[in-house]
Structures are given as structure tokens and as C-alpha cells.
Write a structure and sequence with these properties.
mainly alpha, Serine Threonine Protein Phosphatase 5, Tetratricopeptide repeat
Length: 135
């Protein structure tokens, strides 16, 4: 009987340690994503779009569904006049926002931001068409 109690306690202790580790890892990961996004925004404001894109890419690797990072990366590509890449990023952002509004239909911010992603796509296509017309 005592052996069973010890085994149960050990199993419970292992579960508690695993859950605590998971919670801590998620907090660290979330903080890292926020730091990368903040750094990227600062770099973007300074006109250092290449470095901003690298930070956004790191954030997206940690959280592939990070719509804001996809959208902001699209802006950096847009400013670099890499419109094809900007469109790809904006489209990924739209997909992420669509998932958000599907699971949270009353999430007004997601609708708002998705609208801006669609606007970004439109502007990028306009710029691409202007470039094609010059050729």
C-alpha cells in the first residue's frame, strides 16, 4: 500500500513539474515574441527595414499565427519596394486574422487589422502595376 502511495506522489510531482515548466516556457516565449516585435518596430521607424524583417521572421518562427508580425513585415517589404513579398506577408496576416475572427467572432480589433491587411494588399498591387506599366 505504501509503495502505491509513493508511486502516485512521484507521478503527481512529475506532472506538476512538467506543467510548471510548460507555463514558464510559454511566458518566456511570449516575452521573446513581444521583444522581437518591439525591436522590429523601432528598426522600421529608423528605416532599417532589413533588420526589422529579420526580427519579424524570428517572431513568426516562434508563433506562426502572429498576424501583427506578418502584417508589419509586409509593411517593411512595402517600404523596401519589394511588393511581391509584401503581398505574401499581408495575405498571411489575413489568414491569421480570419482564424481569429472564426474563433472569436466579436473580436473587433481582428476585423480592423484584417481590413488594414487588405488595404496593404491593394496598395502593393497598385505599386506593382505602376512598375509593370513603366517597363
Amino acid at each position: 500500500m505504501e509503495t502505491n502511495v509513493i508511486i502516485i506522489l512521484v507521478v503527481l510531482l512529475v506532472i506538476v513539474i512538467l506543467v510548471a515548466g510548460f507555463v514558464v516556457w510559454n511566458r518566456i516565449k511570449k516575452q521573446k515574441i513581444e521583444t522581437l516585435s518591439s525591436e522590429a518596430k523601432l528598426l522600421e521607424r529608423e528605416g532599417n527595414y532589413e533588420e526589422a524583417i529579420k526580427r519579424y521572421e524570428e517572431a513568426v518562427k516562434l508563433k506562426p499565427g502572429h498576424a501583427e508580425a506578418h502584417y508589419n513585415m509586409g509593411n517593411s517589404y512595402f517600404y523596401k519596394k519589394e511588393y511581391d513579398k509584401a503581398i505574401e506577408c499581408y495575405e498571411r496576416a489575413v489568414k491569421c486574422y480570419k482564424k481569429t475572427v472564426k474563433s472569436k467572432p466579436n473580436h473587433a480589433r481582428a476585423y480592423h487589422d484584417m481590413g488594414y491587411a487588405y488595404i496593404g494588399i491593394g496598395y502593393a498591387y497598385e505599386e506593382l502595376n505602376k512598375l509593370k506599366a513603366k517597363q
